[in-house]
From TrEMBL:
SMART domains: AAA. CDD domains: ABC_NikE_OppD_transporters. The lineage of its organism: Bacteria, Bacillati, Actinomycetota, Actinomycetes, Micrococcales. This is Dipeptide/oligopeptide/nickel ABC transporter ATP-binding protein. InterPro entries: AAA+_ATPase, ABC_transporter-like_ATP-bd, ABC_transporter-like_CS, Oligopep_ABC_C, P-loop_NTPase. One of its GO terms (molecular function) is ATP binding. It comes from the Bacteria. It holds the Pfam family ABC_tran. Keywords: ATP-binding, Nucleotide-binding, Transport. Residues 8-257 form the ABC transporter domain.
Amino acid sequence: MHEYERILIADDISREYVVDDPIMGRVAATVVENASLALSRGQIHALVGESGSGKSTLARMLGFVIHPTSGSILLDGARQRRARPRRDVLRRVQILFQDPYGSLNPLQRLRYLIGRPLRLHGFASRRRDVEAGVSRLLESVGLLPSASFLDRRPGDLSGGQRQRVVIARALASRPDVLLADEPVSMLDVSIRLEILDLLRRLSDEQGVAVLYVTHDIASARYISDFVSVMYAGRIVEAGPVDAVIDRPLHPYTRLLVDSTPAAAPPDIGVHRVSRWAKRMSGSPPSRDSSPGCPFQPRCPAATAICAEQRPPKVARGESWAECWNPVE
Ligand SMILES: Nc1ncnc2c1ncn2[C@@H]1O[C@H](COP(=O)(O)OP(=O)(O)OP(=O)(O)O)[C@@H](O)[C@H]1O
Ligand code: SF4
Ligand SMILES: [Mg+2]
C-alpha cells in the first residue's frame, strides 16, 4: 500500500467519557484507546470486534460526528480541526448507518432525498439535471428501472431497497470515504450479500475508501482487503485480511477465527463475535486501569507478564498485533 493512496487516517486517537460509577462516583472511561488506522482509495477496511469494543465510537470519530479526546484525524494528510470541520470535508466522508428505516425521511420522495445533496453541493441545479443525476445514482445502486423509483417514498420500499437508497444518497455527495457501521445487520439474511457486493463494486469501480464495521468475521473475509480487530477499545491486531484470518497473531483473533467454519457464508448472521465470545472464559473487561493486557483474564495463552505489563507490538509481514505471546 502506497502512502499517497491513503485518504483518511486516524492517528493515535482516543475517546473518553465521564460516566457515573456506583462506587467511584464520576470517573473517566476510555472507550477508544490510542487507535490508528488508514482508509485507502479503492479498499475496504473491516473493523471487527464484539459488542461494546468501541467500533462505532471509532467510526463516529472518523466521520467527525464526535471528536477524539486526543490524537488526530487526517484527510489527504491534512490534520482536521477538532470542532466544525469544513463543509467540503464533511461532504467527502459519508456515513452509512445500520438502520435504513431511521435514516430516511419517510415523507419525501426519492427524487428529493437523493437530489438534495446534488443541489446542496452544487453538482446540479436545473430540475432536469437533478433528475438525470438522481436516475444515474439509482442505477448505480441497482434500483432499476430508475424512473419507477423517482416518485416513491421510503415506505414504498423493501429494507434492502432502502439501504440502496441510503447508499445512493451518500454517493450523491461524491464522497471519497464511506463509513458503513453494520450496514447489513438489520437486513433480511437473503439480501445481505447483495448489499455487500454493492459496497465491493463501488469501492472497485469508483475508488471509494470503505470502512466496514461488523461483528461478523465471515463477511469481513468476504468483502474486505484489510482488517483491524478491536478488543476493549484497542485495535489489538491489524493486517491484510488473508493474513489476519489465515494466520492470526493475536490469541483473541485466533479464537474468533477458530470459532467459524472456514467456508462460513458471510450472510448467515449466526457466527457472530458475541456468540463466539461466549466460548472464552470470563466476561469482557471493564476498562479499568490494570497495567497488563486487557485480554489477559480470558486469554488461553496468558503468562505472568501479561497481567503486569502492556504487551508490545509484534509484526509479521504486513500484519501486527499487541501481544506478549503471539500465535506461532
Ligand atoms: N456517550 C457515551 N457515554 C458513555 N459511554 C459511552 C458513550 N458512547 C459509547 N459509550 C460506551 O463505549 C463503549 C463502546 O461503545 P460502541 O458503541 O463504540 O461499541 P461497538 O463496538 O460499536 O458495539 P456494538 O457492536 O454493540 O455496536 C460501550 O461500553 C458504550 O457503553
Ligand atoms: S499479551 Fe498475554 S494475555 Fe494478552 S493476548 Fe497476548 S498472550 Fe494473551
Ligand atoms: Mg456499534
